[in-house]
Amino acid sequence: QSKADGKGRVTFFEPGMDEAFQTRRGIEESLRASLRDDTFHVVYQPQVDVEGNVPAVEALLRWKHPELGEISPSVFIPLAEECGLIMPIGEFVMRRVFEETGRWCNLRVAINVSAVQMRTPGYATQVMQLAARTGIDPSRYEIELTETALLGDGPATAENFEILRRLGFSIVLDDFGTGYSSLSLLHRFHVDKIKIDRTFVHGLGESGEVNALVTAIVKLAKSFNLGVIAEGVETEEQLRELTLAGYSMFQGFLTGMPQPAGEIAARYEPAATMRLQA
Ligand code: C2E
Ligand code: MG
Ligand code: MG
Ligand code: MG
């Protein structure tokens, strides 16, 4: 069935196709178009140590829907996962990040990788080819995985994980503490770093239990010999509490907003910037 909507456009609908579903279909269509038109971009958020140095940044995808405006990746990434677009979008992110940051020499760069990518057979091999083609050094990059990304059953997840490690990528367990099996994952997978979820950081000072958890997680990281970083740091108070608890790496609006590669490079990669101008 179809009907004209007054402006001469024709909209299609089927029984049960409600508004939310139409919106999703619309977003999927726009995601596809954006891949074709190359209208995604990547921003980089500083990770700051106790002395205020910035040894690393996290790459975050940005997308502007033609009518709806900026949409958060926490909304469109799950949609992309469902409709089969996460593989091309993930490849776009990695290629763009490698191209933009491959010549940096001070900053390490963290990239988010989705559960669907990790459970796709051959994914890590694609990453290997992309790394070779762009000439990047994997040991300067960190792959951020959530617990869900590691819980994928089937052999592909573990195989991709091992290949990425062998290529030299560091592995970070993102949003640590929010899932059901954070601890058993640490036992099963050799990760290099954990990133405590921002819900804990935001809960600091609200209850003694949250403070105890935040402290327990940094101790856990240290006893496993893992790096540890706190995300979502918004206030001086949170920074102070985290520092007292033993954290020494921070990421959040307080310590640095996500910025385009050019701005990050101008500030933290003067050598790379000069080479480009020369
Ligand atoms: P994430 O990996 O945990 O990334 C951190 C998110 O927290 C980012 O949201 C960042 O902008 C936001 N953030 C940073 N500082 C603060 C703060 O002080 N307070 C608060 N409230 N938030 C802060 P963003 O960019 O909207 O991304 C949301 C999620 O989408 C990410 O969470 C990640 O899971 C996913 N994502 C982003 N880019 C990619 C990508 O390229 N690929 C995949 N697969 N997922 C991505
Ligand atoms: Mg992340
Ligand atoms: Mg996170
Ligand atoms: Mg998150």
Automatic annotation (TrEMBL):
Domain spans labelled EAL: 24-272
Domain of life: Bacteria
Protein name in the entry: EAL domain-containing protein
Residues of the full protein shown: 464 to 741 of 741
